[in-house]
Design goal:
It contains ten helices and no strands. It is an all-alpha fold and 275 residues long.
Amino acid sequence: MTQIAPRPTTVPSLALAPAAPPAPAHVSRVGTVARFTLLELRLIVREPILVVSLVGFPAVMVLVIAGVFGQAPDPEFGGVAPDDYYVASYVGIVLASLGLITIPVHIATNRQLGVLRRFTAAGLGGRVVGASHVALGVVLGVVAGAIVLGVGNAVYGIGFPERPLAALGWFVVGLACFIAIGLALGSVLHTSRMATALGNLLFVPIFLLGGGGPPRAVMTGPMRTIADALPLTHVVGGMRAAWLGSADEAHTLWWPLLVTTACLTVVAARTSPNA
């Protein structure tokens, strides 16, 4: 992972069109969030290292790791082919990269450069900014997950999910969990250097133990215990169980939901007027 230095930025104009008949309040808020989300996407495109870390690293790793272990079913991988095992897993790894690195570094960089302050001065409230960060995470997570899945499928092939609705449900749970983690980290880390350092420090062990490294069957007892405490383990395990039909994956729905709730509580406390 590469350290990301603050980059000079010019915030695109937020000027509105000439006055028109007022729209209903909820329509106006949705339109504002949509415009601000597009603005955030334009800003994040100017940070190519973030895009590479979100998509490039997982895509390259799934090609390498899946290729190392081959395509024959293996009992250490729950009786499924290792390439299928890792292609399904790395969709979850993308979400971890999104929540631990991409979102917090983006928010911290904008705060450090005064971009968030300019948004506030332009009349955008904290709820609009927060909603746009959520929408940004959804867009990035869906696109990055689709790219990694497409790359893995093109090279190794992967069957249609055994339980497609369950696989989609676990993806949504993981996306919500790691967007919440990213927002929480972004709310407490004030510089891009801090966010990059902590994000990388957290990502590497979570990546290795949460589904991107060795299979659970070959882990030592202490490493398995640590892995069980990671929300990524349960998200990836649930996705693999739904996608591949394996029954021995560690996955508990309440744990990533609890982590999501805790992180959103932190965000609410940090962004409240009295914080």
